[in-house]
Amino acid sequence: MKIKIKELEMINLKKVLIGLFTLGVIALGNEATMMATANVMESLTVRVDEDVNFGNVARGSSGNLGAGKFSVKGELGSSVNITLKGLESGELEMYHSDKNSSVTARLIDAPKTVELNRDDFVLAKPIKMSLDIPHNTRVGIYTGEFIISARYN
Length: 153
What we know:
- The protein has one helix at 5-28; strands at residues 45-50, 64-73, 79-85, 91-96, 102-109, 113-115, 122-123, 127-131, 142-143, 147-152.
- By secondary structure, the protein is an alpha+beta fold.
- The protein has a single domain, classed as Immunoglobulin-like (Sandwich), CATH 2.60.40.
- Strands 1, 2, 4, 5, 7, 8 and 9 form a 7-stranded antiparallel β-sheet that branches. A 3-stranded antiparallel β-sheet has the order 6-3-10, with no helix packed on it.
């Protein structure tokens, strides 16, 4: 059985076309479509219910405790992360009104998350702090501040 040159060329051409088609199918298989979605939720509101107050403390005293309370309102059934900006190191510098003297309050405990389990403000765990006052501390009122922020998980 003799195969003519033209027939051989046609067979080779068919093989090349099949190969190119196969490569084309493979090339089409190297991409995918990804969707982007967003769940728009209620705005979060953080409210300070009670500032951290150490009360009257004496020079040379240690272990003075203070606690502050705050609440968060947002989408019912959600969980939010809590950040205390200005307390990242676990310490808060409190300054005398003259700005020349300071004392350092230390963070003992604070909530990291709040579960929004009702459709109103949810009271978070208190922010607890301690304050040691050296003997040579200048008499007067000392203040410091930090920011409580909430973000959906």
